[in-house]
Amino acid sequence: MRPLKEKVSITLDSDIVEKIKILAEEDERSFSQYINKVLKEFIKNNPEK
């Protein structure tokens, strides 16, 4: 069973948005999928936080 997802709204700097769009496209993921991937990796690599 896939984990449940929750819709959220965040505000990001425009230069960050543009870079994420590029990276997501290179990784063949949607913008949201790419942000989710990056955040999961960050949490996995920083368990003390």
Strand and helix order: HH
Mean pLDDT: 94
Q: Rough shape? A: globular
Instruction: Figure out the total of helices.
Output: 2
Overview of this protein structure:
With 49 residues, the chain is mainly alpha-helical. The protein has a domain at 14-45. The chain contains two helices and no strands. The chain has helices at 14-26, 31-45. Helix 1 crosses helix 2. It is globular and about 30 Å long. The relative contact order is 0.10. The mean pLDDT is 94.
Explain briefly what this protein structure is:
By secondary structure, this protein is mainly α.
Topology:
Elements: H1 14-26, H2 31-45
Short descriptors:
single chain; 49 residues; mainly alpha
